Amino acid sequence: DGGITQSPKYLFRKEGQNVTLSCEQNLNHDAMYWYRQDPGQGLRLIYYSQIVNDFQKGDIAEGYSVSREKKESFPLTVTSAQKNPTAFYLCASSRRTGGRVTDTQYFGPGTRLTVL
Amino acid sequence: GESVGLHLPTLSVQEGDNSIINCAYSNSASDYFIWYKQESGKGPQFIIDIRSNMDKRQGQRVTVLLNKTVKHLSLQIAATQPGDSAVYFCAESYKETSGSRLTFGEGTQLTVNP
What we know:
By secondary structure, chain A is mainly β.
């Protein structure tokens, strides 16, 4: 059963704590992405990775960090430096053809992070 | 029923009617566009896409229209059903030196009344 999985579905964090959100895909996609979604709003890009061991900052990278040690995995750490981390976090992936990453992104089910 | 994107983020229609959801995109260099459907508490689901060398593309019960002159995109849903109730996002893609990326609109909430 191919797809993108995110865990956990719900996550609670105390202020000042770092927390890591998991994203795994078995679609053999090269590129992976992290987005943040606030209530009633669209998606904002946090970080993305076109290939293993490489990643770039998106529009709202401050307070977040990522790693891409394996093609299948792209974990996101929300650090204590992120001032307003409560949000819905979405992971996506897309494939590469002919040396270029294609545009269509497929999304996981999301993780809802709440800071207490 | 018809929405005008950011200025009217909600659209309410009767079951069986046709729905039109509009989106104004910002970058004239964008060459690929996607519509996503997002149900409450779930990730966005791909519906249909269109490249800038086309002005219309049809899927099952959905049609996307692209007007590059005025940078406007629309999603038409035929015979709208209660299961179509969701938030619909348009996304535009343009190439950067590091690869392509998507920029999402704010979304339109579609409510289908039985």
